[in-house]
Specification:
InterPro entries: F-box_dom-containing, FBD, LRR_FXL15/At3g58940/PEG3-like. This is FBD domain-containing protein. It holds the Pfam family FBD. The structure is a single chain. The chain has 282 residues and is α/β, with parallel strands linked by helices. The protein folds into two domains: 109 residues; 168 residues, no CATH class. 16% of the residues lie in helices and 28% in strands. The strands form two sheets. The protein has a ten-stranded mixed β-sheet, covered by helices on one side.
Length: 282
């Protein structure tokens, strides 16, 4: 089908049932968005292979389940926007680098074109995210959706003798959604970026629940915001609701700089009280 569409630039696949393996090969495709969906009876897309797509700039997986394996992203030398990756993907090949459930097994390929990455991470798993930063040294924007019901020890020190290029020179925007400030794993994860992202311009943190301003002040103290590596960075925290990226629209508009740059859903309790969302920022 794709070989018969020599001018195709954008492709969207929704609720892909009954297909076990999908191989993409196109000389013109720039954007691929897919939502495999879920069913207890039918098959959902199990394996995706990007065989040869030299113009592909964005690969958007918007469902939290389905597509258990992205076996290969090859020949995509212009890929700049990738998401949503998660532990549900049992195996991911980026060139010769291999990730199994987001854990790096081999880090032999660096993709210098990647600038926007969206992840859905249990814990959240800081080691897994840092390995992606190493794989994408020119990453500018990072989105992480927390699955916080499982706790992972995120205490990690940054070794200046083993610098991460994206943290030193590139990463300007970090967005954390469903942040649980009651758990040390979430606090340590956010604090790592506050203290080590040296060119950070903006960090937005959204909670899955309602909180008052005095609670935010305590959180900023725990995150050591006053000691942030980039003193120019604006750190913002707001109460809200559980958020995901499945409602992204307009992905066919290739002029959109960042399809994950969406406004917060907002806090239902604040809306009930006729108030704006509780926001705290420095």
């Amino acid at each position: 089908m794709l070989s018969g569409c020599p001018a195709l630039e954008s492709l969207e696949l929704m609720k892909v049932f009954g297909i076990d393996r999908l191989c993409i090969s196109s000389q013109t495709l720039k954007s691929l968005r897919f939502f495999a969906g879920w069913t207890s009876q039918g098959l959902f897309l199990h394996e995706l292979v990007i065989e040869d797509a030299p113009c592909l700039e964005r690969l958007l997986r918007l469902d939290p389940v389905g597509t258990k394996s992205i076996k290969k992203i090859g020949g995509a030398t212009k890929l700049a926007i990738l998401g949503m990756l998660s532990e549900d993907i049992s195996e991911l090949h980026l060139g010769s680098s291999v990730f199994q459930k987001m854990i790096a097994v081999s880090l032999t390929t660096k993709m210098h074109t990647m600038r926007v990455l969206a992840l859905r991470s249990t814990g959240p798993n800081l080691d897994a995210v840092v390995n992606f930063l190493k794989c994408f040294p020119c990453l500018e924007r990072l989105y992480v959706i927390f699955k916080s019901w499982e706790v992972i020890n995120n205490v990690r020190s940054y070794d200046p003798l083993d610098p991460i290029e994206s943290l030193e020179l590139r990463l300007k925007n970090v967005v954390l959604k469903n942040y649980d400030g009651t758990k040390s794993s979430s606090i340590d994860f956010a604090k790592f970026f506050v203290l080590n992202a040296k060119v950070l311009k903006e960090m937005k943190i959204t909670l899955p629940y309602h909180r008052q301003h005095r609670w935010f002040a305590k959180q900023f103290s725990l995150l050591r915001v006053r000691s942030r590596a980039s003193q120019d960075a604006q750190i913002e925290m707001r109460c809200g609701s559980h958020e995901y990226f499945t409602h992204i629209k307009g992905t066919h508009d290739l002029s959109t700089h960042d399809p994950f740059d969406l406004p917060s859903i907002g806090c239902s309790k604040c809306k009930e009280k006729g108030l704006g969302d509780a926001v705290y920022q420095i």
